[in-house]
Design brief:
The N and C termini lie far apart (about 60 Å). The longest helix has 29 residues, at about 40-70. α1 packs across α2. The protein has a domain at about 20-70. It is elongated and about 60 Å long. The model has no long low-confidence stretch (mean pLDDT about 80). The chain is an all-alpha fold. It has 2 helices and no strands.
């Protein structure tokens, strides 16, 4: 029996994670629905708008967490 010495770590810098790919796909899909020249049911457009809003909030929160960890942003604004 052969022992494995490989460690499982964080994904590489340039490599997109499954979470990031799903997030990008949902963002593109919601933008396409919102900007669609075809008349879609109002509920579909409303869901796409809320999805875009939720993804924007999620991106802002993740960016804020990265700023807290990095400490690069100015306290005074």
């Amino acid at each position: 029996m052969e022992k494995t010495t490989k460690t499982v770590g964080r994904p590489g810098e340039g490599k997109a994670t499954l979470y990031n790919r799903i997030k990008e796909t949902l963002a593109v899909a919601s933008q396409l629905i919102i900007a669609s020249p075809v008349k879609l049911p109002p509920k579909v457009v409303l869901v796409a708008k809320y999805l875009a809003l939720a993804l924007g909030v999620l991106e802002a929160v993740a960016g804020g967490l990265r700023d807290e960890d990095g400490g690069e942003e100015d306290e005074n604004g």
